[in-house]
Amino acid sequence: MKQKAEIKNRREKGITMLEIILVVALITLLAAVTSPVYVAYYTRNNLHLTAATIASGLRKAQTKSRAMQNDNPWSLYIEEGKIVIYEGSDYASRNSGFDEIYEIPDSISFSGDLDLNFSKLEGELNSNKNLSLINPDGKTMTMVINTKGTIEY
Prior knowledge:
CATH topology: minor pseudopilin epsh fold
CATH superfamily: minor pseudopilin epsh domain
Radius of gyration: 28 Å
Strand content: 15-25%
Helix content: 25-40%
Mean pLDDT: 92
């Protein structure tokens, strides 16, 4: 009788291999179920974050043009991985010493008007502009910027 009590006490002191396997299996199952949801959220969030960064950059370039900072117009140029607010109306011939560069996710691709030039003093675009942002899943967000600089997305 004493021997059975000792064996029973020894079994109750630790956790069994079966319990460890069950916990690991449960964690693996939870990770498998939640990871696609997280990836979808992450890519959708990148799209919205990029649009908000571009909208903020547009506002900044427009404000600098209206203020006639350095007595020049200001513009915004979009390329993979970054947006550039630059002085002048031609990205190729700009003075890069005045550039303001903001990083955006490399996974987002663009189509449409990628060089947006605001006029000095009025801070207006010469025409309405359309810009499409595309995430790796193929989801697209279109930004429409009118001549006054109002942004819809």
